[in-house]
Predict the structure.
Amino acid sequence: PYEQISRQDHHFAIEAGSAVAGRFIHRRASDYEAGEILVPPNTIIDSRVAAVAATIGATTLRVLQRPRVSL
């Protein structure tokens, strides 16, 4: 955080002891357990479902019928 930075002229430094290894790091697969159902079957894919898919790094989704999109 900003409060833990010292400045001298044009040099900035993080104060000793304020940096903690792993702090602010979101570990992979820490939100859900393997095999856990995140979205129940027959759910319409909306922005919330897309957000869950993005959270787990899903690049494809298995659907029952081809989605129709209009612009």
